[in-house]
Amino acid sequence: MDARVSIRFLPRLCLLLSLLLLLPPAGAGEVESRTLTVTDPAGVDLGVTVYPATGDRLYLWLLPQAGEHANHARFGHELAAMGVEVWQADLLDAHFLPRTNESMRSLDGVSVAALLGAAHAQTGKQVMLVASGRPAITALRGLRQWQEDGPEAAYVLGAALAFPNLMVDTPVAGAPAEFVDVVRATSLPLFLLQPAQGVYRWHLDDILTDLRRGGSAVFVQTVPDVRDFYYLRRTDPEPEEQAAAERLPAQLLQAGRLLASVPRPLAAAPLPEATRAIEVGRGLVERDRPRPVADFTLTDHLGDEQSLSDYDGQVVLLNFWASWCPPCVHEIPSMNRMAGTLGEGFAIVSVNYQESAEHITAFMQEVQVDFPVLMDFDGRVAADWRVFAFPSSFILDRDGRVRYSVNSAIEWDDPDVIATVEALMAEPK
């Protein structure tokens, strides 16, 4: 190439190099996280991952029962970029507790209150708690403990709770849910994110009634097209779940603004004097009560209508399930064998929870299902039958009364189960 031609391009080349030098390196806009330790009054060292930010708010995020998810780091970085500092703590890890329901429900609010105080003392920021699932109980206990500790200023905004599980325990299938005492003794404001396909959608009024007894101002935002744990899915999240997870940081930003706009009492609401009893049981639990709801009619996966009353005069196994529930899928073969063993006079009616007919049709091409599958598209029938766990099943006698229920998977062709159902089939009508 002629040297004179090359010289003509030098100014442009210099300009291009200058622009490249001005570009930030990859990841330069992402804050670096750091760690610190807070020791609570009981001497427990609480490890905290910090995503620093320059704004005047801090979100204290209690990690879920299953532990940290990749999304937590992502959310921490995104909120920090929005000006919200994030502290994340794993209480089960700090207390050396197994990751079980019982461990999660056993935690009091002392550690959370210590974290709230340390977050404000070290940064001077307003603090909002964030939790999901069962850690929501610990969050409420922590808010109340912070009030009991006698703070001098209302720097705690309240809590944002996603799909909170506030039950004392999972009740027997068909029994009413009871919520932990602190639900009725919460006076600080709350922001709830309720998945439209979540188990508690149709029980939300009961939750809100108890929360408001303590004086809490409660905001609720429905998250469409997803079920509980939508942003904590560890394998193969659905596109709707990914989209909802991407919206979460902005929703939490809105939550902080809303909670900051309402009164935040420093005094703790009194705990209820009476503790509510809950009916619990594992395995096949004997019952002898009228059926919990009237007859229902749903379409099956092929679009044909069926009613529960179509099976009057037979002993019926009514099973609520979903294809995303491994125990539900595991018990299907034993249900097929049970139906083959018991024959005439016995029927299985399964109700699928909030999945599409197309999905279930495809599922049934891979998994043999020898009984009708009715589609509970909005989850209302499951809610009417007080289903809080999957699978949940009811055995109805020939008069339509619920005689047994179970809120877990079992081997339905177990000889003891078969004998129990045969005894119902032999009863005079």
TrEMBL record:
Residues 287-426 form the Thioredoxin domain. InterPro entries: AhpC/TSA, Thioredoxin-like_sf, Thioredoxin_CS, Thioredoxin_domain, Thioredoxin_ResA/DsbE_sf. The keyword Cell cycle does not apply. It comes from the Bacteria. GO terms for molecular function: antioxidant activity; disulfide oxidoreductase activity. SUPFAM superfamilies: Thioredoxin-like (SSF52833). Keywords: Redox-active center, Signal. Residues 1-28 form the signal peptide. Gene3D superfamilies: Glutaredoxin. Pfam families: AhpC-TSA. The keyword Aminoacyl-tRNA synthetase does not apply. This is Thioredoxin domain-containing protein. It comes from Thioalkalivibrio versutus.
